[in-house]
Amino acid sequence: MKDHKIIVALAIIIFTLLGCKSNSQLGSKVPPSFTIGLAAIERKDFETASFHFAELAKEGNPSSMNNLGVSLLMVDRKEEAIYWFKKASRYGDQNAKLTLKAMGEDIPPSDLVGQHPTQLQREETERIIINTLLGIAVGVTLYYASQGGAAGSTHSRSSIFNSIHQNKKIIPISAIQKQGCQCVCMDGEVSAICSSTLDVPPICSPRICPVMPLSVEPIQSLRISPIGTSNCVQKQIYDDNLYRYKWQEVCY
User: Which Gene3D superfamilies match (predicted)?
Assistant: First the structure.
């Protein structure tokens, strides 16, 4: 009986927190935004990131599915994170495949490429999306309260990648990509994941890391150029010198 009262009390708190969050989102009439979600992950606001990416994931956006997985993993919701990494993998998101490989999980084939639905089935929406949003408040609290002492903590998540961390020479990202490798980031640590076995696997610069490999969608900010003959868009371009992505205008 006592446990039942505790569960009811916790449920009320969660719904209150969720209600405040939802009201603030709806009250400001700000639609789910991929860019806002990315910015939230960069400042480690995984609650806000999860809200935006969960809404976009319902529309079948594979990049948002991957980034929702990243947000969930960072608040110790591993099983749900794996679900979304696998869903993103089925839609062809390469970052999700790399993360699943590093975690030792099965990598689903890209069997849903080109079949993006307007939204997930109602049953999945209710069972996964709603439960995800309800769990964010608890997940974030546990993440910061645990301070690395509980199972699935920051230390535990980092240990997943320990087997691929080697004392190898750091080389530029362009050279890593030529070897068929890609940098995978997690908890401030980075590793090179390669499509084939190399005698001397490279290691990426730690300056590359945001949190994990995020899927980046360019902002399609189309506008007419001064001469009125071409359109320009803002795209994310990787800068080898800065070891990070930067926005760059590309005109056509």
Answer: Tetratricopeptide repeat domain
